[in-house]
Amino acid sequence: MQKHYRRKWDSVLTDRERFNHQMHYKSVDRCFNMEFGYWDENFRQWSMFRENNITNNAEADVFFQFDRIETIGGSIWMVPPFTEEVVDQTDTNLIMMNADGLLAEVPKDQHDTIPHFIKASVVTPQDWEEVKAQRFALDAPQRQVDVAKLQAFHGPDSDRPYPLGVHCGSMIGKIRDMLTFEGLAYACYDYPEMVEDMVETCCQLVEHFLDQVLPHFTFDFASGWEDICFKSGPIVSPTFFKDVVVPRYKRIAAKIHAAEIDLWWTDCDGDIRPILPLFLEGGINCMFPLEVNGSGHPGELLDQYGRELRIMGGVDKMALSKDVDAIQAYVTSLVPYVERGGFIPFVDHRCPPNVKEEDYLYYLDLKQRLFGQLS
Predict the structure, then answer these.
(1) Exposure winner among 1, 168, 295, 370, fewest CB in 10 A?
(2) Is the pLDDT of residue 1 over 70?
(3) Per-residue pLDDT tens over the stretch 55-71
(4) Alpha-carbon span 177 to 298, nearest angstrom
(5) Domains (ranges, CATH) in the chain?
(6) C-alpha separations of 29 from 208, 307, 365 in Å
(7) How far apart are CA 373 and CA 173, in angstroms?
(8) What whole-number distance in Å separates Cα of residue 209 and Cα of residue 172?
């Protein structure tokens, strides 16, 4: 049995009840307690992880006794993916083909860093047609969901004590992964019809998955991944996003709304503010993890958009890397927004290894003192 480092916060509501109450501005016993996770290096550097054989984020969630939250996903991208393999190497780096068909240079010592991408397998419309035919077939057997297996794992909807979400994938973020940052930027202008067909393909794959699972579960939220912003804003123009991506969001929103799912968050780093109104227009009404260095203090957006917007995340990892005074000042600034509802605070991405172990534990203690006993 896995060890626990901390006792679960005292509770009256179930995790599921608490999540739904908090995200719908109803009274709660306390704040929903979760974190986004940690860099791989943290598991090697922090003594509490090493000494207790904690090697990944799932184990860390149990170790800290965070509230439970689960998501059901499907095969909504390449089937089959490209074979991951080392194709060359230098003294310090490996040249690898990754699952998205990119040649990438990565460090041999496996420290966390953004890979240096060398070449994409899809550049032209001809490349896309070939890859689409080989790896994006809607009727691939792997895309069939074993609903009975999922039902057996999660149990009856009425008995489930934790929130369960359905993953709605990515309309443009995974395309960025396949084309690279620069490749997508060029393709939107050089081959806009190709990019739109990619977005349409992604939408159809998600719709196919949703049609299989929505009738069989009572989901508490929908989730997504759309990592298309950086510190200075989105890598696609707002016009392209509005004309090409938002209509596909609306199709997915129609399906999940028909299934009585009214909370849809997506994971997008960087400065989301230029396209935040478009996310909302498309039906995505919760931002995750809201990187403070890109999008500002979460209170600014919550004040601006009111109950139209929810946020999960928004705890500045840069404050955690400074000292306890900076941590206290920042986390304390979040108190009125947690009390308001529609906001669950946690570190605004994976916690990096430059955060001291003792400072991270101080942060968890502070969260419990400030948010662990709401009424």
Answers:
(1) 1
(2) no
(3) 999 999 999 999 999 99
(4) 27
(5) 15-80+121-371 (3.20.20.210), 83-120 (no CATH)
(6) 38, 21, 18
(7) 38
(8) 17
Q: Which residue do the tokens 């004309």 mark?
A: 243
**pLDDT (0 to 100) of residue 298:** 98
**Residue 52 and residue 352: Cα distance in Å, rounded?**
19
| 339 vs 22: CA distance, rounded Å | 9
Cα→Cα distances 233→238, 268, 275, Å: 10, 11, 8
**Angstrom distance (rounded) from CA 279 to CA 265:** 10
SS (H, E, C) the chain: CCCCCCCCCCCCCCHHHHHHHHHCCCCCCCCCCCCCCECHHHHHHCHHHHHCCCCCHHHHHHHCCCCCCEEECCCCCCCCCCCCEEEEECCCEEEEECCCCEEEEEECCCCCCCCEEEEECCCCHHHHHHHHHHHCCCCCHHHCCCHHHHHHHHCCHHHCCCCEEEECCCCCHHHHHHHCHHHHHHHHHHCHHHHHHHHHHHHHHHHHHHHHHHHHCCCCEEEEECCCEECCEECCCHHHHHHHHHHHHHHHHHHHHHCCCCCEEEECCCCCHHHHHHHHHHCCCEEECCCHHHHCCHHHHHHHHHHHCEEEEEECHHHHCCCHHHHHHHHHCCHHHHHHCCEEEEECCCECCCCCHHHHHHHHHHHHHHHCCCC
133-165, pLDDT tens digit by residue?
A: 999 999 999 999 999 999 999 999 999 999 999
